[in-house]
Predict the structure.
Amino acid sequence: MSEFTDTQRLDFMLSKFRKVVVEVLPFGGRDIYVEEGFMGNKTYGAVRLTNPSVQEEDQAKRMAIDIALQVQR
């Protein structure tokens, strides 16, 4: 279970032009991470998935936000 609430995640993402980026890798893989700044000046750690389902990808997006939140602490 995550230590962050959805409200904390939303507040974090809305500040400093943050967005979740999903990079499609060869053979169906995905790198999911949070990027900060208008031009993506800063990136946080990525979550890597191989052939994810929709539910796994949604969960990985939350995990990527949690990683970025932990770095900010």
Q: What stands out?
A: The CA atoms of residues 18 and 40 lie 8 Å apart. The longest strand covers residues 29-36.
